[in-house]
Structure prediction request, 146 residues.
Amino acid sequence: MACVSRWFFEEQENIFGDAGRSYGMKQFVAGALLTIAFVFLSGCLSSPAVRESTQGGLHSHYEYTVGWSPGQGCYERIEGYVYNAGNTSIDAVNLNLNFVHTGTGTIRDSKSIFIGRIGAGETRTYETLLDGECTQEYRVVFAFRD
Prediction:
């Protein structure tokens, strides 16, 4: 790397004189900072975790993935569906999702999702975001709520 960077700066100096060397150094520093930023933020992006939850005749299949955006920072996107495997309709289905810090057990964010009535054999989909911090580890705790 040192050999390549020395060659790059020497070529810039040969072409542009001292101004080229300064310009080349700025490019190198900017590229290094961008590389470091992408490596640091790559820990915030992960592959999806798929989970199942069951309560009586209700079954939920959901997956969550970590994402990052300049406006929100790190967040957890949860997408899934609820399926009524029973023989009767269920009138008021509520889901409770908690974003729990794995080290301390504290809840960072929580969402309640009202699904409503689900007939026998029916499926309903849902999606939500939970707020987190990029440098922390979390898990999603899912529960049906009466």
Observations:
- Helices lie at 2-16, 18-42.
